[in-house]
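subagent[fold] <- orchestrator: predict structure for attached chain, return tokens only, no commentary.
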Amino acid sequence: MNIGTSCIAVDLGGTQLRVGHVDAGGNVLWRKAAPTANSGNPHQVLEQIRELSAGFDFSSIEGVAVAAPGPLDTISGTVSRMPTLPGWDDFPLRQAVEEFFHLPVIVENDAIAAAVGEWRFGAGSGYSNVVYLTISTGIGGGIIAGGSVVRGRRGFAGHLGHIIVDPYGDAVCSCGATGCLEALASGTALGRRAQLLAASNRDSPLHALAENSSVSARNVTEAARLGDPDALALMAEEGEFLGIGITSIIHALSPDIIVLGGGVSKGFDLFESSMRTALEGRLLSEFQAFILPAQLGDDAGLIGAASLLLNPA
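subagent[fold] -> orchestrator:
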């Protein structure tokens, strides 16, 4: 492989840390993952990145591309704060990674990176106006408008999880506000509602699937596929919340396609009907957009970040 045709990509998530070797064609040549160290010490995560990439010949690559949650100032490469990970306030992420690897580094909001990955190589390929919505520990977004990446002031654009969908609700978001889409429809929120249901019905599949008595969004999807009525109701509710939020996104941005990624999107078939019902009752008839699950799965952030380093947009 020629120098300059590939890079190391890092996807720093609130739950999982992924490191991969990605080429300019969007191919993940290898990848490794580990639970993200949640100690409040960013340097411990940097050490994890070093461990996951141990043994790799860095002389053959162009640099390191990092996708991370925000708000993230992509101009300075500094994390403003990470609601899903403590201890990262005002952390100079790009500088720290450069000092670790002595290579050129770019940092990008994780949802924007995933949006680019899906736009160039996945479900959004061929479209000029793409919105990517990741539904995981939190909810993030990335926007492609007229064939260009939308970054906004300081690279902060796309925090679609903080659209307010329930102004009178009491669900508290990781940002500290109430009523955000993230507070109601993230994987964390879905797991929290499932935990309450499982505690009240110890004979339910939800309770049986729980790990260490903690119910996750993944457990909800598994139980729904087993026909558990509580889990099916939770997924229908998830779809309704998403439909309300997506209505505002479509009205604001008029995309060709909305791509749903993140762990919760793996249950797309379980919440699609209620999501579309919520949309149909609210969306102006002139607005239309395809809504599809992501094609790149957990690799979207790695592929998109690498693509931005190797072919800037």
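orchestrator: received. Logging for downstream: The two ends are 23 Å apart (CA to CA). The CA atoms of residues 239 and 273 lie 7 Å apart.
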